[in-house]
Amino acid sequence: MNKRSVAAWIPIRTPAWDHPGRLTVYENARDQFIGQLPQVLRLLGSDVTVEEVVLGQPPGELIAWFKQKSFMSGTRLFEYISIRATVEVDSAWLISKPDIEEELVLAVAASQLGDKIELILVLSELAYPGCIDVLDGACLSSNLLVHEIRRKHAFGHLIFPEDNDPVWPEIRMIELAKVLAWAQRTRMSSNHLAESRIERALAAYSHVIGLSWLRDGEGLFRAMQGLEAFYSDSVGDLRKQLSEKVQLWLGHWQDNKNIIGRLYDLRSAFVHGSARLVYWGRESGAWDEDETEMQRFDGGVKLSIRLLIATLQRCIVDDITDIKWSYSFAASGRDAGA
Predict the structure, then answer these.
(1) In what helix (H) or strand (E) does residue 85 lie, and over which residues does it extend?
(2) Hey, what's the torsion of the CAs at 290, 160, 24, 174, to 10 degrees?
(3) In CA terms, which of 47, 138, 274, 333 is 20 to 30 Å from 16?
(4) Helix 102-127 vs helix 176-185: crossing angle, to nearest 10
(5) 31-35, 73-77, 283-287: which range is least confident on average?
(6) Closest among 127, 188, 110, 118 to 149, alpha carbons compared
(7) How do the domains of the chain map onto residue ranges?
(8) Rg (CA), the chain
(9) Do 289 and 252 touch, CB atoms closer than 8 A?
(10) pLDDT above 80 (res 253)
(11) Nearest-angstrom CA–CA distance, 192 and 203
């Protein structure tokens, strides 16, 4: 018998208590995410069969584990997505290891489900920007916690901008299944190293998603890395290329400020150490010390992330999987057109 039952639990951030005005948008995104999980898990392979995806309450011993990972998981700020699935472990692998402990088989089965969920969570920011924010999750089999699912941060400013947050370029909601189908055509789910221009931008995006809000400088670096991968060639004036091609791809911004130049200056200052760097773990104090400087840097981080996500979203909507630039563009992909 090579099939094992696996249950996954994911704590997801809800704005119901502290930001009730965001609740409708969040619930629509959450419900679409839950509703499409069975379909997108099937797209990632036939080894996982989803039986149920619902909101639920984990058993008490698991709640205690979640609280050990983060005290917030035991508060009204989080609810839980429950996924029940059957996972098929490779028969040849099991036959080659006749003496393997059952606990290890359960761990392998759980990792097959957990790895797929992690990929889906990474892509969820392209589908439902700012809405799917989760803490570390857990996979259980035979009532044993045998695998952890890494947390995924959401960028709330993308869909819920506050004062002074950038609102250009346009950010949209896209069906999760459409995002995953596009990502598979870029070979993201099959290859470990990115090759094409779009794949390299997508790889940089995945690092942005893996960083927490306490690592804004690294987020700026990765977002700018993704933008350069998509828009720039390795020769010539990179700043000019990026500025002109961003407008060609995403449209003109309303004001005439040199926003790309400012982003380059911010990135360079951070990378080369000329910026006023924040000491580790002292972000809150830095805002008290110089709010103007922190606001300027925060705005640059948010704009660079918004530009990268909007860039990739256009690729998804237009089904573009490769692009070549000559200050116009030639795209290839199913039903793609310049």
Answers:
(1) strand 78-88
(2) -140
(3) 138
(4) 100
(5) 283-287
(6) 118
(7) 3-154, 166-332
(8) 21
(9) no
(10) no
(11) 9
